[in-house]
Amino acid sequence: MQKIINFYKEVKQEGLKITWPTKPEVITTTIMVFIFVILSSIFFLLIDKIISFVVEYILF
User: Fold this and answer.
1) Domain map (residue ranges) of the chain
2) Model pTM?
């Protein structure tokens, strides 16, 4: 039983060492993720269109 109590205390001590991001950091990184997703989507859309055009040109 003492091992479980010691384990819980150690987990609690390690949990107190966590530094959580601030609200502005969360907002900034969230916006960065959305921008990256949009740019990636546009990039892959263009690549897909180019490849499909080339394949249709070769086959037909």
Assistant:
1) 21-60
2) 0.66
